[in-house]
Design goal:
Distance between the termini of chain A: 12 Å
Distance between the termini of chain B: 51 Å
Radius of gyration of chain A: 22 Å
Strand content of chain A: 25-35%
Radius of gyration of chain B: 22 Å
Number of helices of chain B: 11
Oligomer: heterodimer
Number of domains of chain A: 2
Structural class of chain A: alpha/beta
Strand content of chain B: 35-45%
């Protein structure tokens, strides 16, 4: 017991490694939120009329909404007028045509993050769309993808180049009035990624976005829209970091996935926003709405997430299984230390016949972290022979943390089979003893056990991400001197 | 949500009426009632927007024009009572409450060991026993427990001194008679089991007609150090009845508390169980079976609070839903900071027999200590196809195979009812409830079970 506490002491000493600030002159709209700000954002991005209308509609709806209070997370009230809703690195005002023209300072930031855009382009074969504060900085590999008919670009570019696609699909999965933070995003979103995979095309590389909040007092409201047309396949990766600040920053993103007939989308996230310091000061409020729609028959959507950052994480990547025989998956690892709070999980809504969903969630709580799994499995009356399996395991690494499980299971069809299992435990002294007896240090043993605990989820990540995720977990456990 | 004016006036009038017979009662009780009234009037009945009532709408209660039941209650003989009570058992204490009022002429009182007091709660509140205040104000209240506090008139008070064990079970029968107008009753029971004492209590709720009525009961149990309290609840209200019940238990170190529940009746029923394991080494078992057919709505809302280290809890709830019935289960397990060495397990299983039935399940673990073993599992689905196939391949027809599997699913819970008379009575009722059980009965007869 005491030993386990020592093991975890390292969490407390753990500093955020991605907490550097990049000094880039930024073009920022003054703080505050009103219709003029929304018009200004829209104007700066040269958006078509329909988008501005949608923004204003969402904003007017948001005004009458009440901030939700139902979750177990607690935080001081957010001053929505104290946030700047648009911040663009200034030297990018005239967007660079080529990667070489990108502000070297920004590129260096990404290098420190370990995503050398040039390198990755050649070696990893990952097409990256990097979002820095509010605008997309550079998109690699675009031409090669374009040859296959795959449209992968920043959201702003998509609005300019493919407005018909944006108009057709935007808001179809997460409507403007969905929830408080999604409505706010619908009103003020600045940039994000857009991807369209045409029928029958299998995207040969992993598409990737890297988000970074740099400027102080800004919020990041990105919007991602991925459409996989009939019979296509795409795998998408998303990573995030933010500099160290004393104040809390808001991140309210919306991600919409649409899989048409026989299409498959895999979406992976490694979220490492700044979690705040050891006293719980600062850090990112990560309030995200992610939802996928299996619109066509036999479509598949899979969410995989590794959540190690943010002061507060509040997100439930969901799948609406509308098409018959469609499949939804969720694999998640959430890790909370210090004063971090995570309230995360998933929703699976079974509408079509023979739909299947799998949920595997691993929560790890240390320090004074609070880790909550919250999930909904809903089987509607028409979802004949649908199937769900849910497994939620929690690992506790201290006696001041908390691990909670709140599943909701609603079944309206008797042919449906729904199973839920959850367990909570700590690392056993016997397990540690066994490892040490075989020559492992206590620290390595803890790290190994934690990695083993998460293995089911991590092996669902694409290779590059699996390595990064494992490393993140390891680093978080570093300094646990037994 | 605030109350509609009509409902508000009815409850206020009832509050005044109950207050009329309460002169001379202790001042603290008067204060409690006033506080409950104030809270109830301010909040009214909860709506489905309230997280604890997400799946249970209360329109039937809110719009029902319930009045206090009349004092006559029709003519009943002890033989009628024997027909309602489960099985035949010579050695039992029976207290009958007809329409919420204690009826000594229908009850069977036996000698109790010295140190055991069994009587009406009204008498106890009149001043016979001191120090009851804390037992009335240590639980979080809901709109229904507040309503009960406001309007309670009668119920049981059981007090066991140190080391007193009552060998026979004590049956409390709450019976509602048919009435022309919708009536209501708010029974309130208090069971205080002293150190190392032991008792078995059976609460039975039944209706004698199919008229609509509303029963809202509260039972508070305090189990002292090393005490053993076995509580059984058999709810078989009339088909149009609304039944709301709260069972709240606080356990001392080393105590053992078991709450068995069988919910078969009522149109709308809701059973709250709240057990606080407030001493090291306490053990708690919640074991329940609920059946629903027609348009029945049956909701179980349980909380097990591990407040101290080294406690163990087990929770098993099975539900079978047919026709358009809806079953709701919420099982919350809380492990407080420093409640190390907690061992908590929970299972909820739902069987859907018809196309339009529905099951909503919310198992919850809330854990603030690290050295714990906690698991929960929940399943919802039809009967296992493989088991059905196995039985059919051995010559059992489909309907009988389904009957047998359904019976087995429910009996898993009933087998834990360690009160043989009650258990076999419930098993009989279960067999009558399950659609096709002729072969099952033959089988049970042949195997002598």
């Amino acid at each position: 017991m005491g030993n386990a506490a020592d093991q975890v002491k390292g969490w407390v000493d753990q500093e955020y490694r991605w907490g550097f600030v990049t000094t880039v002159e930024a073009d920022t709209i003054p703080k505050g939120l009103n219709e003029d700000v929304i018009r200004a954002i829209s104007a700066r991005k040269g958006e078509p009329e329909f988008l501005l209308e949608r923004r204003l509609k969402a904003y007017r709806h948001w005004l009458i909404m009440i901030e939700p209070k139902w979750s177990t997370v607690c935080y001081s009230p957010i001053d929505f007028q104290g946030i700047s809703y648009y911040s663009a690195p200034k030297s990018l005002k005239d967007r660079p045509g080529k990667l070489d023209e990108v502000d070297p300072e920004v590129l260096r930031t990404y290098e420190r993050l370990g995503i050398p855009l040039l390198e990755q382009k050649r070696l990893a074969g990952v097409a990256v769309d990097a979002v820095f504060d509010s605008v997309s900085v550079a998109t690699t590999y675009q031409k090669e993808l374009a040859n296959m008919g795959i449209l992968f670009c920043s959201f702003s570019e998509a609005v300019r180049k493919y407005p018909h696609l944006v108009e057709k699909y935007l808001g179809t999965v997460v409507p403007y009035n969905d929830n408080f933070f999604a409505s706010l995003n619908s009103a003020v979103f600045t940039d994000g990624s857009f991807c369209y995979v045409p029928p029958g095309v299998r995207c040969p590389v992993e598409l990737s976005t890297y988000f970074r909040i740099n400027a102080e007092n800004t919020g990041q409201f990105e919007r991602t829209l991925i459409i996989a047309d009939a019979g296509s396949y795409v795998s998408y990766l998303e990573g995030c970091t933010a500099p160290r600040r004393d104040t809390n920053q808001l991140h309210a993103a919306v991600v919409e996935l649409i899989a048409l007939e026989d299409a498959e989308i895999r979406y992976a996230t490694v979220q490492n926003w700044y979690p705040g310091d050891r006293e719980g000061r600062g850090g990112i409020y990560n309030f995200v709405t992610k939802r996928g729609l299996c619109a066509g028959n036999r479509s598949r959507i899979s969410w995989t997430q590794v959540e190690t950052g943010s002061a507060i994480t509040w997100k439930y990547p969901s799948v609406i299984l509308k098409g018959d025989h469609s499949v939804g998956q969720f694999h998640g690892v959430a890790l909370t230390t210090n004063f971090q709070q995570a309230d995360t999980g998933t929703k699976m809504t079974h509408i079509g016949k023979n739909t299947r969903s799998t949920i595997v969630n691993k929560g790890i709580a240390g320090g004074r972290g609070q880790n909550t799994y919250r999930g909904l499995v809903k089987v509607l009356a028409g979802a004949e022979n649908s199937r769900n399996f849910t497994q939620c395991d929690s690992l506790l690494l201290g006696d001041r943390c908390g691990a909670h499980t709140f599943p909701y299971i609603e079944v309206k069809n008797r042919t449906a089979q729904v199973e839920h299992e959850a367990s909570t435990s700590k690392i056993g002294e016997d397990q540690l003893f066994y490892c040490q007896q075989r020559g492992l240090s206590r620290e390595d043993a803890v790290s190994m056990i934690v990695n083993g605990f998460c293995r089911e989820v991590i092996r669902n990540l694409p290779m590059e991400f699996a390595v990064e995720a494992q490393k993140l977990l390891e680093i978080s456990l570093e300094g646990s001197v037994g | 949500m605030t109350l509609p004016a009509g409902t508000r006036d009815r409850y206020l009038a009832e509050f005044e009426r109950v207050g009329g017979s309460r002169k001379g009662r202790p001042a603290w009780l008067r204060r409690l009632r006033d506080e409950a009234l104030a809270r109830f009037l301010a909040s009214g009945f909860p709506t489905v927007k309230h997280e604890d009532w997400k799946y249970t709408g209360l329109a039937a209660i809110e719009q029902g024009e319930f009045e206090a039941a009349g004092a006559d209650g029709g003519d009943l003989s002890p033989a009628d009572i024997a027909g309602i009570l489960p099985g035949e058992e010579a050695d039992r204490h029976v207290l009958v409450f007809l329409d919420g009022r204690y009826r000594p002429e229908l009850s069977t009182r036996r000698d109790l060991p010295s140190g055991a007091h069994l009587g009406s709660l009204t008498g106890a509140l009149g001043g016979e026993f001191d120090g009851l205040v804390p037992y009335f104000s240590r639980s979080a209240e809901t709109a229904f427990t507040d309503l009960n506090t406001m309007l309670m008139e009668d119920g049981v008070f059981l007090h066991l001194a140190k080391d007193v064990r009552v060998p026979e079970p004590i049956y409390l029968l709450f019976l509602m008679s048919p009435a022309a107008r919708p009536v209501m009753a708010h029974p309130r029971n208090l069971i205080i089991a002293g150190e190392n004492s032991g008792v078995t209590v059976v609460e039975q709720y039944a209706g004698r007609g199919d008229s609509g009525y509303f029963v809202n009961s509260v039972t508070d149990i305090s189990a002292g150090r090393d005490a053993t309290v076995s509580h059984f609840r058999f709810q078989e209200e009339g088909p149009s009845a609304c039944h709301v019940a709260a069972l709240r238990a606080r356990q001392g170190a080393g105590s053992r508390f078991a709450a068995h529940s069988a919910s078969f009746g009522a149109l709308l029923s809701r059973h709250d169980v709240h057990a606080v394991l407030d001493g090291e080494g306490a053990e708690c078992l919640l074991n329940g079976l609920y059946l629903g057919n027609g348009r029945q709505h049956v909701d179980h809302f349980t909380t097990i609070d591990h407040a101290k280290p080294s406690c163990a809890s087990r929770e098993y709830f099975h539900g079978i839903l047919n026709d358009r019935a809806r079953g709701v289960f919420r099982g919350r397990v809380i492990v407080r900071k420093d409640a190390q060495k907690t061992d908590a397990r929970q299972t909820n299983r739902n069987l859907l027999l018809s196309k339009e039935s529905e099951a909503d399940s919310r198992p919850q673990l809330e854990i603030h200590a690290d050295d714990v073993k906690c698991t929960h599992g929940a399943t919802t689905g039809p009967l296992d196809e493989e088991k059905l196939f196995y039985m059919r391949s051995r010559g059992i027809d489909e309907a009988s195979a389904k009957g047998l599997l359904t019976y087995a699913f429910a009996d898993e819970v009933l087998r834990r009812f360690d009160l043989p008379v009650l258990r076999s009575a419930l098993e009989e009722k279960l067999l009558a409830w399950i659609p096709e059980t002729r072969r099952v009965q033959e089988f049970l007869r042949e195997t002598g079970q």
